[in-house]
Amino acid sequence: MANQPIKKMEKYIQEVKKYRELLKGNRKSFWAKNQKEFEKNITRIVGESRKPRGWKVYLVVSDFVPHKKILPFDDETWSSTNIVGATKKQGFEIMAFFNRAGSFLSRPALLTLVLHELWHVSQITKSPKKYLKSIVDDKLSMKLEADAEKPIEILPKTIKDEVVLEKILYCYDIGGWLAAKKMADFMYKKREKIYGGGYLQEMDKNCYNAFLTARQKRNINLFIGYLDNDQ
Ligand SMILES: [Zn+2]
Question: What's the maximum distance between 2 C-alpha atoms anywhere in the chain?
Fold first, then answer.
C-alpha cells in the first residue's frame, strides 16, 4: 500500500481486530476511554503524517454547541480546516478544527476524520487562493471535498468498516434502534449530499441491508457479525 498516507497501517488493523471482541461485550468503558484520549489520538495520527513545509498547523479540539449533547448524525458534527494566514507578512498558518462529537471513536476509526482534514491542509498549502474560493463556489468545493476523500477511499476495508461499526454501536448504546437507524440513514443516504457534496458514502447497500435485518430481528450482534465476516 504505497499510497497510504499513514506509514504503520498494519498497527491500526491489529488494533481494530482487538476491538472487535470488545465491541461485542459491554462497550461503556470503550467509549469512555476513546473520549478521554480523543485529543491524544488525533495528535498521534497527525504526528505520523507528512508535515507541510513552511506552514504552521494549529489543532483545535472542541464543541460547537457546548451545552447541547450533539449526536453523531446531527448537523453540528462537522470538522473543518481553515486558512489563518497565507502571506509572508501574516504568516503561513492553518487551523484544523476537530469536532468533539466524534470523540467516541477509537484511534483507528479516527483515521477517516483526521486524514480528510489533513488532506485539506495540503490543499491549502498547494493553493490557498483556490481553497479560499471554494467557500463561495459550490462546484469547486465539491471538487476539493471529493479530493479530500481520496486518502479515505484507499484505507483498508477493516478500518472503514470499523468506523461504520463504532458509529452504529455508539448510537445504539445511547439511543437504541431509533438513534442507530438515524446514523445508518446518514451514512447510507445523506452523507454524500451534505454541504457542497463530494463526500463518500460511508455505508453501502449490503451493509445497510444487514443493519435493517439486525434491526428487524432486534439483535445488534447480527450487525457486528456481518461486518466482522465481511473482510
Ligand atoms: Zn472536507
Answer: 62
138, 100 Cβ separation under 8 angstroms: no
* Residue 3 in domain: no
Q: How far is the CA of 52 from the centre of ligand 1 (A)?
A: 18
Q: What is the pLDDT of residues 42-74, one digit of tens each?
A: 999 999 998 899 999 999 999 888 788 888 999
Q: Cell 477511499, residue? A: 153
- State the residue for C-alpha cell 476513546: 34
Q: Is residue 193 part of a domain?
A: yes
- Measuring CA to CA, which residue among 55, 50, 58 is closest to residue 96? 58
For residue 98, give the H/E element and its range.
Answer: strand 91-99
Q: Where are the alpha helices (DSSP H) in 48-156?
A: 107-126, 128-134, 138-148, 150-153
Say how many Å lie between the CA of residue 135 and the centre of ligand 1.
11
2 in any annotated domain: no
Distance of CA 99 from the midpoint of ligand 1 (Å): 13
Ligand 1 centroid–CA 116 distance in Å is: 6
Give how many domains the chain has, as a whole number: 1
Residue 4 lies in a domain: no
At 77-89, the pLDDT tens digits run 999 999 999 999 9
Inter-CA distances, 199 with 79, 141, 169, 207, Å: 13, 11, 22, 18
Angle at which helix 138-148 crosses helix 107-126, to 10 degrees, equals 130
Range of the domain at 201: 9-229
